[in-house]
């Protein structure tokens, strides 16, 4: 089980700091720090650092095997995130869908793509025991 004194950290490339800040703030993430070569966000309680690295951008991203995101344990939070992404016209990589329909691991999901083509998945399992 996760303890409250731990924060997951993820570092990813970005191609432009200003557009990166705009995207993640629209997503609801708080800008924690900004330097000439990177920005750090509070990403739903965890830390995402976007390093300025325009030569390391995946020009043709695919959902698998590389993406990251949030698994909501409350459907209302998933719905709120989806509504916010739609209202703020954030770019969808994959529209909302249901995966593994009819199985225990059935879940609702959607993917966004940030300005550096990093893919973000947001999902909600109907059976919370399937979150791990």
Automatic annotation (TrEMBL):
<dbReference type="InterPro" id="IPR004360">
    <property type="entry name" value="Glyas_Fos-R_dOase_dom"/>
</dbReference>
<dbReference type="InterPro" id="IPR029068">
    <property type="entry name" value="Glyas_Bleomycin-R_OHBP_Dase"/>
</dbReference>
<dbReference type="InterPro" id="IPR037523">
    <property type="entry name" value="VOC_core"/>
</dbReference>
<dbReference type="Pfam" id="PF00903">
    <property type="entry name" value="Glyoxalase"/>
</dbReference>
<protein>
    <submittedName>
        <fullName>VOC family protein</fullName>
    </submittedName>
</protein>
<feature type="domain" description="VOC">
    <location>
        <begin position="6"/>
        <end position="125"/>
    </location>
</feature>
């Amino acid at each position: 089980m996760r303890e409250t004194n731990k924060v997951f950290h993820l570092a990813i490339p970005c191609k432009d700091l200003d557009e990166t800040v705009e995207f993640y703030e629209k997503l609801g993430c708080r800008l924690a720090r900004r330097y000439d070569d990177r920005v750090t966000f509070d990403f739903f309680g965890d830390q995402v650092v976007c390093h300025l690295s325009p030569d390391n951008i995946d020009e043709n991203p695919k959902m698998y095997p590389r993406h990251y995101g949030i698994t909501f344990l409350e459907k209302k939070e998933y719905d709120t995130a989806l509504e916010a992404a739609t209202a703020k016209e954030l770019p969808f990589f994959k529209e909302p869908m249901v995966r593994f329909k009819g199985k225990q691991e059935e879940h609702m999901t959607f993917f966004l793509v940030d300005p550096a083509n990093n893919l973000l998945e947001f999902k909600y399992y109907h059976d919370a025991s399937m979150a791990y």
